[in-house]
Design goal:
TIM Barrel, three-stranded antiparallel beta sheet, globular, eleven-stranded mixed beta sheet
């Protein structure tokens, strides 16, 4: 299934090459900057019945735009980017169906299980999505935090996914090394997620054609959804028509 996304940077809807997002503004590489507000995209997805998409706040200055999207499609989005124990409940009250958390549950490159426990106690595992966005190192996939710049010691595998599945409803996994490049997906990562994940998971990174939706369904054993960003025509891309992904979801309804 296709999952829509609204990536926000400095209050605007953008598509960014994932590996370029850092503390150095000169390093940022942007594929697309919209002159339309987040609300416009949220209303589009609402009208086409595309639930379960992601509103991602990439750095500061995006909260107002995120809340605008949530208000336009209540219950339609997961929201992530800077989510922690202090603000998670507020975003749920603002209309998010789930909150997405990454960096806050890691400290000094290690999973902070006590922080994760506190978050589950506060909002419940059924409204929590864990972002396990990763990069490859020494042939393995490690979760990265802090705008995908910092490697943690958490390796994606059957044991770690089984443990984390006890504390959340879904996983979101950006393949940060190929994110925003439109040069092809990380098929090995998709295959491993299909083998190992005991929960629904959404993969993002490198999709550039409608055929990728079919490939993810097959390689991911029917358990993995796909986000398409920079290749999509509504985000300035040429590889995938938005009308086609809407039709794909209509032909492949959940359940």
């Amino acid at each position: 299934m296709f999952r829509p996304c609204i990536d926000l940077h400095e209050g605007k809807v953008k598509q960014i090459v994932g590996g370029s997002l850092s503390n150095d503004p000169q390093a940022l590489r942007t594929n697309f900057v919209s002159d339309r507000p987040s609300r416009w995209f949220a209303e589009l997805f609402k009208n086409d019945g595309l639930r379960g998409g992601h509103v991602i706040m990439l750095g500061p200055g995006n909260e107002a735009a995120a809340r605008e999207a949530l208000a336009a499609f209540p219950g339609g989005f997961h929201v992530g980017g800077g989510i922690d124990l202090a603000n998670a409940a507020g975003f749920l009250e603002a209309g998010a169906s789930h909150v997405i958390v990454t960096s806050w549950i890691f400290r000094e490159g290690r999973l902070d299980r006590e922080r994760l426990r506190q978050l589950v106690a506060a909002i419940g595992k059924d409204r929590l999505v864990l972002d396990l966005s990763c990069r490859r190192r020494d042939g393995k996939y490690f979760v990265v935090t802090d705008r995908w710049q910092t490697f943690t010691d958490l390796k994606i595998g059957p044991e770690s996914l089984s443990e984390l599945a006890q504390s959340c409803a879904e996983f979101l996994v950006h393949a940060a090394d190929v994110e925003g490049l439109c040069l092809g997906m990380d098929l090995e990562l998709i295959d491993k997620l299909g083998q190992w994940s005991p929960l629904p998971a959404t993969y993002a990174g490198g999709a550039n054609s409608l055929r990728d939706l079919e490939n993810v369904a097959r390689i991911g054993r029917g358990k993995i959804d796909l986000t398409i960003g920079s290749a999509l025509d509504i985000f300035g891309g040429t590889g995938v028509r938005y009308a086609d992904v809407v039709e794909f979801n209509r032909r492949h309804p959940v359940g």
